Amino acid sequence: MRDSKRPNSTNGNGPVRREIVDLPLEMISEILSKLPTESILICRAVCKTWYDVSKDRCFINKLDNSQYQPTRLLLKPQVGRDVNAPSYLVLVDIEKGKARQIPLDKMILDLQIMCSCNGFLCMASRKKLNPVVIYNPITMKRVILPPSNMKSTVLRHEVGFGFDPSTGKYKVVRAYTGFSSRRKVRRFEIISLGESSWRELTVPQSIANRDGWAVMFWNGALYWTMSKGISTIIVQFDLTDEEFNVISFPRHFYSRHASLGLIDVGGHLTLVQCAANVVKFWRIMENEVGGDLSLSLQVTYDTHVNWGYALGCSYVCQMNQESYLLQVGYWNHAHQRCENLSQYFPKKVQYSEFQIPGLPESFKTLCFKPSLAPLPATYVPSDW
C-alpha cells in the first residue's frame, strides 16, 4: 500500500496536508462491490480511478452477481385522473426500512412498468403502442424502441421483456388489441434490441383472443396469465425458439373471483391463487415426458382474512422460509385507493405492516435488483 499526496490546502489555522490512500485496483473493486449499487454512483465522483473501476464491465458483472446486492422493491406511484403523476420512482430497502426517490423524466412519466430483466425496466402505455422504452432507473439511461407502423386504435397493450441466453440479446414481445378498418384485431409482435423494426408472431388460436396481464421474465422465457371471460390460462413464450406454450390448469382449479400472480418461491416459478380467505401456491413444472409444462399444488393456507373488493392483497415475493411480502390495498373514506406493505407469516397466521417513511399512498410494486449495466442497444427515432 502506498500513500499518494495531494497539494496542500490551508484553513484559518495554517496549512493542512490532504492525502488519499492509493490501493490496488482489485482491492478498490472489492470494496466498491460491497456498497449498495446506488451509492456507487456517488463514489464515481470521488476520483477518476474509482470512476473507471465502476464503469468496468468485469466489475459490473461482479456487482450483479454479488450477495451484497439484494433484490429491492421498486414502486411506481399511482394517482387519480385529476392529479398529475409524481415524477419519480421509489426504491425500497425492506431490511433497512428506507425508501429513496429516483427522478423520472417527462417523456416516460406517464408510462407503466410492464416488465423487468437484469436491472432494466420495460415501460410502455396501456393504450398506445408508442413509445416502448427500456430504462435503467439507477443510471437513468434509456433506449427508445422503433415505433410500430400499426395505425389501429389500441384498446389494450401488454409488453414483456427478457434476455435470450442463446444469442446474448434482449427481446421485447408485445400483445395488443385494437380496431383496424372497423375490425377488432389481436396481434403479437417481437423485436430484439438493436433491430430497426418489429416482427409479427404467429400465435396458437387458444391464446389469440385472450387478454393478458402479470407478464414476468423467468429463466429464458416470458410468462403471462391470460383470460377470456372466466377462462384463464398461463402462456409461456420461449425467447430462444420463439414458440408459445400453454400451461393447462388442473380440472379442480377454480380461478373465478381469484387473484392470480406469478412470483419466485424457493427458486421456483410459482402461481399464487388468492381467493376469499384461502391462498394456494401452484408450482410451474416441466414434465419429464414430453417436456410439457403443468401446475402442481404445493401448499394451501387459510389466511383468516376475507380478501374482497374493499380489501385485497397481492403477493410480491417470498422473504424467507417463514414469510411472504404482501401488498395490501384498500379504499379509504374518500374513495381513494391506498396500499401498504405487510409481512405475512402463514404458519403463525400473523401480519406485520412495514412502517417505511416516504412510501406513496398508492403504488405498483416490482421486485428489482439495481444494476449499473449499460443499456444493451441504442436506437433513438428522430421523431421522439
TrEMBL record:
Name the record gives this protein: F-box protein
Pfam families given in the database record: F-box (PF00646), FBA_3 (PF08268)
Parts of the chain that traverse the membrane: none
NCBIfam families the UniProt entry points to: F_box_assoc_1
SMART domains (UniProt xref): FBOX
Coiled coil: none
F-box domain: residues covered: 17-63
